[in-house]
Amino acid sequence: xxxxxxxxxxxxxxxxxxxxxxxxxxxxxxxxxxxxxxxxxxxxxxxxxxxxxxxxxxxxxxxxxxxxxxxxxxxxxxxxxxxxxxxxxxxxxxxxxxxxxxxxxxxxxxxxxxxxxxxxxxxxxxxxxxxxxxxxxxxxxxxxxxxxxxxxxxxxxxxxxxxxxxxxxxxxxxxxxxxxxxxxxxxxxxxxxxxxxxxxxxxxxxxxxxxxxxxxxxxxxxxxxxxxxxxxxxxxxxxxxxxxxxxxxxxxxxxxxxxxxxxxxxxxxxxxxxxxxxxxxxxxxxxxxxxxxxxxxxxxxxxxxxxxxxxxxxxxxxxxxxxxxxxxxxxxxxxxxxxxxxxxxxxxxxxxxxxxxxxxxxxxxxxxxxxxxxxxxxxxxxxxxxxxxxxxxxxxxxxxxxxxxxxxxxxxxxxxxxxxxxxxxxxxxxxxxxxxxxxxxxxxxxxxxxxxxxxxxxxxxxxx
Length: 464
Known about the structure:
Number of helices: 13
Radius of gyration: 23 Å
Mean pLDDT: 89
Low-confidence stretches: 1-24
Strand content: 15-25%
CATH superfamily of the domain at 251-432: Dipeptide-binding Protein, Domain 3
Distance between the termini: 58 Å
Largest sheet: 11 strands, mixed
């Protein structure tokens, strides 16, 4: 099966390098960058993965500013040294050794040693712990571990330490480019530059992050120059573009889908799915950003999404509805804090009505599946990767693919086909991350899958 993801990454890498080449050539140190996010992140522990896509996305960004990993991805999705300066393995890739970067300090000034890293790696390979080996860490699994670098480069394998400011209530300590100066869970985070960062001091002196800000309020603050980086919903993003403001979009990284697993009758699941006009959702509700979702993994990662049908079939939906008889109204749950989910639920209810099916959209606290007696749910998942194998893992972890699916294109395609053909998961639209940028933000660098590099940007001097 021929995949297109490498072509996408090649094109994205070229665009990334072009943007970088055009960036200002004289960096400026100092200043405070003000950022606003919609998500209300309640913990800075990267292992505390939330269920909703917005919080997952926000936590990943905040973690990257404060914490490091042994291995990380570069802008092209390739593995690069981080806290491990180099690594080696035997011919079978069963025994690995990672050499720690010398001179790294925790934010409290204490040196990073091998024993500090071990707790974060405890479950990297279940049943096979890492052990100190001089200035290195070693693991011997007895079996090939070809994806170990992938495991170490993706969350929640960040290197953190729960010290005096950690488990007792404050955030864990890290070694990243910024240290936590003030943390008000769900509301506000203030970061200051780590002068001793192994990768070099960031240009910014500080970053002030406001959490739980609605997209409309963020755009107003951007217009009033009260903030410099905001996360926008499609409607506000389109308005910002029309006003000539700087807007950056990632690759489609968030899957919005209809979760139908609670509906027992497969004919009813299929009838609802056949009634949905996904193209209208993408063009109207998502303002033509992103793309219609055919598969569970985005097309830029899988390369085979076009093999799945996305066209509505009202005749088939009505035929199934007639076979079933007239069911009672079904409750369609959505996250009460997600405006797009509410709009999608309303639109699907209209589509289903055309097939003779009554759906009642209801808001759910946190969008929790199984609450309030809902049978159907609008759910969002971050399925980006940035590589195929990582995206597969995330889809399995979220229950979108069956457990045990191997990360080969053939196996993942078969698992996707299984979920889609029984209509337990109905992909609707793949949505990009959309960022509004203030005029003073220089050297904005973000790979296509949406990871931010705030430690590499600087602020242009304010005009008198």
